[in-house]
Amino acid sequence: MPERDINGGYMVNGWLQYAHPEHAHRDSQGDMEIPWLNGANELPYKIANSQSDGWDVVQTLAYTSWLGPPGHIYVLKAARRSPPNQFSR
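Structure (tokenized):
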């Protein structure tokens, strides 16, 4: 998966968009697209603290912390969605 297809949150997105714009996600016109900033775009992958409905778990990374409880970080991929039914209301 290319870096540009991962929504890693504010810090990761900022690093990719501003420090390394050559790796940034681009729209069909070639303009930089920043998730939830300049459009309602949803990238195909995201990093999260928990599993989310509509997303498949690609990888789970466990971590420990001496100041808090251990936990997991999830790499998630958008679940394949059916196209909307044009006849439903």
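The chain has a mean pLDDT of 81. Residues 10-19 form the longest helix (10 residues).
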